[in-house]
């Protein structure tokens, strides 16, 4: 009935049952527990309805049952909507399938209200813990990973990658260096940290904030590192492969032309004079063809090497070894990255490409 919380109702029912166990009538027990008899009958006449047994439903009408029910509903919301990214309708479906809809409202409206309250409590708890822990934390030098998203307005995001803590998640008027500076100052308020490195894309406003305003090292994300490498190598190497293929095709035609000329000469009526040196011409044409084929193989090998280096760079850039799953130390990452750059430099010199710039 209106005005009775689930916990108060459970406690009242438990008190009524205790009085009845002592020999009081229903009317006397209800009066002793302070429950109107009509209210008590309304409660008891609905027991056993729904998809749950009367015994199970009776348990959820006890204080212990109410506490368990609240934990189950909160756990469903926490795991399904906050941790799993599912919607409130999945919570409603869980309550229906589990039979808990017999003892708790499973409509979307009822559970949406629960979810809104839970999100508010989680946000309040996070703010309180941030303040409490921030006051006691020692000064730390950290790396920040930042980006700009649009849903629907510009949202600036910053995450500390070691702890995966979201430092910044805030809508802004724009994504200029000034917007980043304002947002990060507010986000770092109360936190004793110093940003010494910032991983990001190549957005001009963000890069300006990192290098000029913040004075930190700007590390481009992997996509932009690979993009710059691809831009410096993919086009020129593909052009070399095409040129080599055309040269092989031309040399092959030259060999065929010598063979055709020899065949035509042999089928023609005998002529005076020395026979043309078709054998020498054929050897020279085949020699030229072999040379062009070798150049083609080298061009293709260089193209494959550039692709292999990009793949190796992607694996080296990862904090965990993709083969063993073990965490990579900074020394290991540095060594693997240096090996990639050495291979790229050797490739650039061998193919006479421009030096690959913008190392992260």
Written description of the protein model:
The structure is a single chain. The chain has 360 residues and is an alpha/beta fold. It folds into three domains: 6-131, no CATH class; 138-220, Ribonuclease H-like superfamily/Ribonuclease H (Nucleotidyltransferase, domain 5, 2-Layer Sandwich); 223-265 and 277-351. Helix content is 64%, strand content 10%. It has helices at 6-21, 26-33, 37-45, 54-59, 63-83, 88-98, 108-136, 177-187, 204-214, 222-267, 278-316, 330-351; strands spanning 140-150, 154-160, 165-171, 193-200, 217-220. It has a five-stranded mixed β-sheet with strand order 3-2-1-4-5. The chain is elongated. The relative contact order is 0.05. Mean pLDDT is 87; it is low at 355-360.
Keywords:
single chain, 360 residues, alpha/beta, Nucleotidyltransferase, domain 5, 3 domains, five-stranded mixed sheet, 12 helices, disordered C terminus
Spatial gap, N to C terminus: 66 Å
Count of DSSP-assigned helices = 12
Contiguous low-pLDDT stretches (5 residues minimum) are: 355-360
Report mean pLDDT, rounded to a whole number. 87
Number of strands: 5
Count structural domains: 3
H-E order: HHHHHHHEEEHEHEHHH
The radius of gyration over CA amounts to 38 Å
The outline comes out as: elongated
Helix/strand structural class: alpha/beta
Helix content class: 55-70%
Largest sheet: 5 strands, mixed
Strand order across the biggest sheet? 3-2-1-4-5
Percent strand equals 5-15%
Concise synopsis of the structure shown:
This protein has 12 helices and 5 strands.
Q: What is the strand and helix layout of this fold?
A:
Elements: H1 6-21, H2 26-33, H3 37-45, H4 54-59, H5 63-83, H6 88-98, H7 108-136, E1 140-150, E2 154-160, E3 165-171, H8 177-187, E4 193-200, H9 204-214, E5 217-220, H10 222-267, H11 278-316, H12 330-351
Parallel strand pairs: 1-4, 4-5
Antiparallel strand pairs: 1-2, 2-3
Helix pairs in contact: 1-2, 1-5, 5-6, 5-7, 6-7, 8-9, 10-11, 11-12
């Amino acid at each position: 009935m209106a005005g009775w919380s689930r916990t108060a109702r459970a406690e009242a029912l438990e008190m009524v049952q205790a009085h009845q166990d002592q020999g009081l009538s229903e009317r006397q027990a209800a009066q002793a527990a302070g429950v109107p008899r009509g209210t008590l009958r309304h409660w008891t006449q609905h027991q056993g309805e729904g998809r749950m047994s009367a015994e199970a439903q009776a348990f959820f009408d006890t204080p212990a049952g109410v506490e368990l029910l609240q934990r189950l509903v909160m756990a469903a919301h926490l795991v399904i909507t906050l941790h799993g990214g599912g919607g409130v309708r999945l919570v409603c479906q869980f309550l229906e399938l589990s039979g808990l809809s017999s003892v708790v409202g499973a409509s979307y409206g009822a559970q949406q209200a629960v979810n809104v309250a839970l999100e508010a409590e989680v946000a309040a708890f996070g703010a309180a813990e941030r303040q409490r822990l921030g006051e006691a934390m020692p000064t730390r030098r950290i790396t920040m990973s930042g980006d700009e998203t649009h849903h629907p307005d510009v949202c600036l995001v910053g995450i500390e990658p070691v702890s995966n803590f979201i430092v910044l998640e805030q809508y802004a008027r724009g994504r200029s260096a000034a917007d980043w500076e304002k947002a990060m100052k507010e986000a770092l308020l109360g936190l004793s940290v110093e940003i010494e490195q910032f991983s990001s894309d190549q957005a001009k406003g963000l890069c300006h904030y990192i290098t000029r305003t913040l004075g930190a090292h700007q590390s481009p994300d992997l996509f932009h590192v690979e993009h710059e490498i691809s831009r410096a190598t993919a086009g020129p190497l593909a052009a070399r492969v095409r040129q080599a293929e055309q040269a092989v095709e031309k040399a092959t035609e030259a060999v065929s032309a010598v063979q055709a000329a020899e065949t035509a000469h042999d089928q023609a009526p005998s002529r005076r004079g020395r026979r043309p040196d078709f054998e020498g011409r054929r050897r020279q044409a085949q020699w030229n063809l072999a040379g062009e084929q070798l150049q083609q193989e080298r061009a293709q090998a260089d193209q494959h090497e550039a692709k292999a280096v990009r793949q190796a760079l992607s694996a080296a850039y990862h904090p965990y070894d993709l083969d063993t799953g073990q965490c990579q130390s900074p020394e290991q990452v540095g060594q693997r990255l240096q090996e990639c750059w050495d291979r790229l430099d050797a490739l650039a010199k061998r193919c006479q490409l421009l030096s690959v710039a913008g190392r992260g």
